[in-house]
Amino acid sequence: MLAAYETSGEIQQPLTSQLRNTAEQIQHHSEKGHMKQAVKSLDDFLKKLNNKPKDVTQRRSKC
Question: In which region does residue 31 sit, left (phi positive, over 0), alpha (psi from -120 to 50) or beta (all else)?
Answer without folding.
Answer: alpha
